[in-house]
């Protein structure tokens, strides 16, 4: 071991020692409990394993990224992840009814139970070329950071804990979730909390994407598919009947004019539109998909109500414009509902993550976002989402990039956080 590496290791352990001692003290345990824990050689050995294994973590990140996992079709990547869990010796490895891949690392006691997760799915449709390229420390490919990095970090944590024979008081459930992106509507993590592990999760950490941030505020969202319907007809012969595409245009213009607060940040977006059959035909239907977001439940409800009024008025106006025949109807379908929530900045899980970040040399900021942690946060379960280290750019783009410089820090932080929360 080089002198620089030895100094780094002991700096990490010393900082983590102070953190875990403080964490245990806050739970009415004696400071000596934390000191005894951090004096264990297993913690030092696990950190050494993280650093040594990071090249393998990066190779696993690439391997998983090159297995397509489009929305609602994560099965191939899920089976590869299940096989990785089995190779690592996790117990009761399974694929649940939602498609989540789950493996258990038992503790000495049944509680507290930590869930450490990353999501399997991507935003990219079937047929997307998922080959990666590498140049120096940079890897490029769709999904390489979001969330192949998270998936690889989770595996790296399990491996390091195994190699160092780290024991925990409570069990750690490792999960590859489905349905985190787009219209997946967090179906995987919803299933975990409502069915698979209902009432048995004491804390939850999601590893999602590249970077150093800690997400403690859940941005809620409501998503609609709105369809205007009519009888349709010929653009010349049937001129004078209500037109679904015209109604759609009225609605979009009204939505674009809506005022929303900047604090808390509240947003809306018409993301997709469609309809019609020909340039010389009055459409029988036209549709759009709308995304509304805010970290504040009240603000989200308010913009939802404004959108509803805009849609209703567009229907009234289009039908009033053409009085002859062919009245339109509207169908509103809720296709996504992610609850808002937050874990307080002073909460032990957040403070633990901040201190562990500092321990490994990461400058971590508290952030907000829409992730798997939305569900536990909304239920009052201590939860955060952490970045997986390294540096990322182009998330959700075909040319997404991940810079692996010092990416081991992300794996090290996830490891220390796992040990602290499971003890």
Low-confidence stretches: 14-37
- Count of DSSP-assigned helices: 11
Radius of gyration: 25 Å
**What proportion of the residues form beta strands (DSSP E)?**
15-25%
Distance linking N and C termini: 29 Å
Please name the CATH topology of the largest domain.
Aminopeptidase
Instruction: Name the CATH superfamily classification of the largest domain.
Output: Zn peptidases
Helix amount: 25-40%
What is the number of E strands? 19
Largest sheet: 9 strands, mixed
Average residue-wise pLDDT: 92
CATH architecture assignment of the largest domain: 3-Layer(aba) Sandwich
Envelope shape:
elongated
Characteristics of this structure?
423 residues; alpha+beta; Aminopeptidase; Alpha-Beta Plaits; nine-stranded mixed sheet; 11 helices; elongated
Structure, described:
- The chain is an alpha+beta fold.
- The protein folds into two domains: 3-218 and 341-422, Zn peptidases (Aminopeptidase); 220-338, Alpha-Beta Plaits (2-Layer Sandwich).
- 39% of the residues lie in helices and 23% in strands.
- The protein contains eleven helices and 19 strands.
- The protein has helices at residues 3-26, 31-38, 41-65, 75-87, 148-163, 187-196, 244-256, 297-321, 348-359, 374-379, 408-422, and strands at residues 91-95, 101-105, 114-119, 133-135, 138-140, 172-177, 203-207, 214-218, 220-229, 233-234, 266-275, 281-282, 285-294, 329-338, 341-342, 366-369, 383-386, 391-393, 401-403.
- Strands 1, 2, 3, 6, 7, 8, 15, 16 and 17 form a nine-stranded mixed β-sheet that branches. It has a four-stranded antiparallel β-sheet with strand order 4-5-19-18, with no helix packed on it.
- Helix 1 (3-26) runs antiparallel to helix 9.
């Amino acid at each position: 071991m080089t002198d620089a590496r030895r100094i780094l290791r002991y700096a990490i352990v010393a900082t983590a020692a102070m953190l875990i001692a403080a964490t245990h003290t806050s739970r009415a345990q004696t400071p000596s409990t934390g000191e005894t824990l951090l004096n264990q050689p297993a913690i030092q050995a696990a950190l050494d394993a993280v650093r040594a294994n990071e090249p393998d973590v990066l190779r696993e990140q690439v391997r998983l990224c090159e297995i397509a996992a489009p929305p609602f079709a994560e099965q191939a990547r899920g089976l590869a992840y299940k096989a990785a869990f089995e190779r690592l010796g996790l117990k009761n490895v399974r694929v649940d009814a939602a498609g989540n891949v789950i493996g258990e690392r038992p503790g000495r006691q049944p509680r507290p139970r930590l869930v450490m997760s990353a999501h399997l799915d991507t935003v990219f449709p079937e047929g997307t070329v998922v080959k990666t390229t590498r140049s120096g420390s940079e890897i490029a490919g769709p999904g390489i950071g979001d969330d192949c990095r998270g998936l690889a970090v989770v595996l790296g944590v399990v491996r390091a804990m195994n190699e160092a024979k780290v024991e925990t008081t409570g069990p750690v459930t490792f999960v590859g979730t489905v349905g985190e992106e787009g219209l997946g509507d967090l179906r995987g993590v919803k299933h975990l909390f409502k069915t698979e592990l209902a009432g048995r999760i004491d804390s939850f950490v999601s590893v999602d994407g590249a970077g150093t941030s800690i997400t403690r505020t859940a941005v809620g969202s409501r998503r609609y598919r709105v369809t205007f319907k009519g009888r349709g007809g010929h653009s010349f012969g049937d001129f004078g009947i209500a037109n679904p595409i015209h109604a759609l245009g009225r609605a979009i213009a009204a939505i674009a004019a809506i005022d929303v607060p900047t604090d808390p940040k509240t947003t809306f977006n018409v993301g997709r539109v469609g309809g019609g059959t020909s340039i010389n035909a009055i459409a029988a239907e036209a549709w759009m998909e709308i995304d509304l977001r805010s970290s504040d439940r009240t603000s989200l409800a308010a913009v939802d109500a404004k959108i509803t009024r805009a849609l209703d008025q567009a229907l009234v106006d289009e039908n009033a414009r053409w009085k002859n025949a062919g009245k339109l109807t509207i169908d509103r379908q809720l296709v996504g509902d992610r609850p808002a929530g937050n874990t307080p900045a002073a909460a032990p899980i957040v403070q633990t993550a901040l201190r562990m970040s500092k321990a490994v040399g990461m400058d971590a900021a508290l952030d907000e976002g829409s992730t798997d942690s939305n569900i536990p946060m909304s239920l009052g379960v201590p939860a955060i989402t952490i970045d997986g280290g390294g540096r990322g750019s182009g998330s959700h783009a075909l040319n997404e990039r991940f810079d692996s410089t010092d990416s081991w820090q992300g794996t090290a932080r996830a490891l220390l956080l796992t040990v602290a929360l499971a003890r």
